[in-house]
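Dear V.,

Thank you for sending over the compound details. I've combined the ligand you provided, guanosine-5'-diphosphate, with the protein sequence from our construct and run the structure prediction for the complex. I'm sharing the raw inputs here so there's no ambiguity about protonation or stereochemistry in the SMILES, which I know was a concern on your side last time.
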Amino acid sequence: MYDEHGYRCNVCLICDHKNAPSAVICSQCGAPMALIEDAREQNRKPAIITLLGEANVGKTVYLGFLLDLLSKRAGGFEAIPKGAYSVNLQQSVIGCLNGRRFPPKTPLEVEHWKWAYYQVRHRLKKSDEWFDVLLPDMAGEALSQEVESPKSYAAISGLLAKSAGAMVLIDASIAASGSPYPDYFAYKLISYVDQRFAVHRKERVRNPIAVVLCKADTCPECFDNPREFAETNLVRLWNLCDSRFENVEFFAASVVGSLGYAHDEDGNVVQVPLHAAPRGVLEPFEWISERMKAVQL
Ligand SMILES: Nc1nc2c(ncn2[C@@H]2O[C@H](COP(=O)(O)OP(=O)(O)O)[C@@H](O)[C@H]2O)c(=O)[nH]1
Ligand SMILES: [Mg+2]
Ligand SMILES: [Zn+2]
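Below is the predicted structure of the protein with guanosine-5'-diphosphate bound, written out as structure tokens.
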């Protein structure tokens, strides 16, 4: 690829900015340029699944466990990572949980986010062809800023413009306590997603959206009927999804089996994951990957 001055350049996979061939990260959006190399090698565009949710809902932990399950061939999936950078996220999450800690906060700067790029197929299904997924772990604070004033993060608007589907993560423990806050945030978020995905305002969006109710270990009724939980506790989000999206499903997920409490060095009370027991982590991915094929995005 050449730029307007005839120099060789690499076009960013996320925001289409033309970067010098030597660039390691995109100068406009901060995404790693290694993604382009890997996409070119593969000769097919990756299906981007964007994970959305405000800070502290559990995105990093969820994604780390999802990738770990995929690489252990859970549910009949087979997954091949592209480069060491794709493995870093699951390695750090699993490493932290093994040490009975939760992972540290995701940094605000795009160049410090971890991007997971995997080649995946379902070994037990008839249509067992490979597809590529790109799952970035973004900072919730960046997403909040982007939702309030769109286009402040080129990486997020670029990602959504190219996403085949999205997972919207919500903190079920806060929603179950009766707070309207998670509903309002998710309501704003999904209306932002609608604006990015909608081709025609009159038509409903076809891209699959999996709404994942995280930390469901704290409110186990979520597992029995996630739809009913959402209809009761997240009614604004529920109604907007119903009006604007054709492919929405609700899931409950959690990664910890039991929690303890301790004091950190500053005397603050912190949660200690005593053991990891992922539940409902693979299902949203399974659903979304099937839907992506069905609607042929
Ligand atoms: N009870 C419970 N707490 C969780 C779970 N996953 C994450 N957490 C808590 O949520 C916090 C934030 O998780 P993290 O993945 O960093 O959230 P992110 O900011 O959305 O990436 C963790 O430090 C834990 O305290 C879970 O499955 N169950
Ligand atoms: Mg995070
Ligand atoms: Zn870019």
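A first observation: The radius of gyration is 19 Å.

Warm regards,
I. M.
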